[in-house]
Write a structure and sequence with these properties.
The protein is of the alpha/beta class. The protein folds into two domains: 258 residues, TIM Barrel, CATH 3.20.20.10; 138 residues, Lyase, Ornithine Decarboxylase, Chain A, domain 1 (Beta Barrel), CATH 2.40.37.10. The protein is 28% helix and 21% strand. Helix 2 runs parallel beside helix 9, helix 5 crosses helix 6 and helix 8 runs parallel beside helix 9. The radius of gyration is 23 Å and the shape is globular. The structure holds pyridoxal-5'-phosphate.
């Protein structure tokens, strides 16, 4: 059973200050979760999670996670800037990008980030990009890393697809060549990365991924004559979006990887190394809620519950057919697998589509789903929106991005991003030019 960290009364009081829709994050949930992750890998003193900034690029959330010891996994210039703003520089930043522009390599290198290459051609491209700043492979303080695409060695994942069909990473042969070239250019610190899953709920899949990397580290070290400081098994740890799904058993993953670490790495003569992850979804996902109000209820060929939130606030359902649970706090009580506090009124349910207001027929949070019955004016909570939620927002149809709020551990609420205004929306247009434009 999961527990909502707020009830109808608390939500209504928050709505007295901020209008719906908004994203609400639960600080206590995020911090406790971060500590659980670290505890599962406590056997590895150099364990580090680099929070995938793309999942929730909010500096307040990032700073909280930095306090918990997490670095930042960045894939773009803006994400690098955010990492720097919260104090993550040097090897607290992992730069895992693809199709990378020169200025992003330069910025990452100036920050001293761990550079994680996506392709063998990027080695020379990087060297050229950072030359004007006097940065070289030989002089670089942080490790270099390559992203391995294991191709057919790893089974496909419903979201990320089969590795051999994915655009990311090096083939195995290319890896040997890349590490040889970096060694020859004077690089001294190395890591190995892969990312083959998205929203994966099978703990054995994650253990097997680490085991493959340990084997490869041993092989590359022997053949190229380098030692590795870390493996990074990427992100992709799933969360239970559906009521019948179970959260990833992190303790199982921790124990399984520890076993592989001993038998497949240390026993083969490779020295200790750090286990790195770059998870986003499983860190903040379950602790973020999209709070919305019912605007209209419509009864035509189907029953429609029309919200003031739309896919511009959370596009996963429209993009992937993703499932997010829908709760109606006015009832309190137990709703699916959620404890929503004391029962307030007896719950009624109905089958309907829960929709937003975009002129797109896939703008639906739930389709023909049995949900607690909601009426105009009711608050509705869409669960597990704390990762790849607000971050994927967009402005189609002139929809404005909503505010992000943080429910602090002491029960207070902090605005960590204000809602956009029409002025923000029009800020890139120069209306005065219209007068002289025929
Ligand atoms: C390279 C890389 N690292 C980490 C992540 C984070 O994945 P997740 O939020 O599923 O853990 C992603 C997601 O797209 C990614 O592309």
């Amino acid at each position: 059973m999961r527990k909502l960290p707020f009830d109808q009364g608390k939500l209504e009081s928050i709505c007295g200050r901020w209008s719906t829709p908004f994203h609400l994050y639960d600080e206590r949930g995020i911090r406790e979760n971060a500590r659980r992750l670290k505890a599962a890998f406590a056997w590895n003193p150099r364990f580090r999670e680099f929070f995938a900034v793309k999942a929730a690029p909010n500096p307040y959330l990032m700073k909280m996670l930095r306090e918990e010891g997490f670095g930042s996994d960045c894939s773009s210039l803006a994400e690098l800037v955010l990492a720097e703003k919260v104090g993550n520089t040097g090897d607290m930043v992992m730069f895992t990008s693809n199709d990378t522009p020169a200025e992003e390599f330069l910025r990452a290198a100036q920050l001293g980030a761990v550079i994680n290459f996506d392709d063998i051609t990027h080695l020379d491209f990087f060297a050229e990009a950072v030359k004007p700043a006097g940065i070289t492979f030989a002089g670089y303080q942080s490790p270099f890393c390559c992203r391995w695409n294991p191709g057919p060695l790893k089974g496909g994942n419903a979201i990320i697809g089969k590795p051999e069909e994915a655009k990311y990473g090096f083939t195995k042969d290319q890896l040997f060549e890349a590490y040889r070239r970096m060694k020859a250019a004077g690089a001294k610190r190395f890591g190995l990365h892969t990312m083959v899953a998205s929203n994966e709920l099978d703990p054995q899949y994650i253990v097997d991924t680490a085991a493959l990397l340990f084997d490869l580290v041993v092989e590359i070290s022997e053949k190229v004559g380098i030692t590795f400081e870390f493996i990074n098994i990427g992100g992709g740890v799933g969360i239970p979006y559906r009521p019948d799904q179970k959260a990833m058993d992190l303790e199982f993953v921790g124990r399984g990887i520890e076993e592989a670490y001993r038998t497949r790495l240390l026993a083969k003569g490779h020295p200790d190394l750090g286990l790195y992850m770059e998870c986003g979804r499983c860190i903040t996902g379950p602790y973020g809620y999209l709070v919305s109000r019912v605007r209209h209820v419509k009864d035509t060929y189907r029953k429609y519950i029309g919200l003031d939130a739309c896919m511009a606030n959370l596009m996963r359902p429209a993009l992937y057919g993703a499932y997010h649970q829908v709760l109606v706090p006015k009832y309190g009580g137990i709703q699916d697998n959620w404890d929503c506090g004391p029962e307030l009124i007896p719950m009624e349910r109905e089958v309907c589509d829960v929709t937003g207001s975009l002129c797109e027929n896939n703008d639906k949070f739930a389709i023909q789903r049995d949900v607690p019955k909601a009426a105009p004016g009711d608050l509705v909570v869409i669960c597990d929106a704390g990762a790849h939620g607000h971050a994927m927002g967009f402005q189609y149809n002139g929809k404005l991005r909503s505010a992000e709020l943080l429910l602090r551990e002491d029960g207070s609420v902090k605005e960590i991003r204000r809602a956009e205004t029409l002025d923000d929306y029009f800020a890139t247009l120069d209306f005065s030019g219209l007068d002289s434009f025929v």
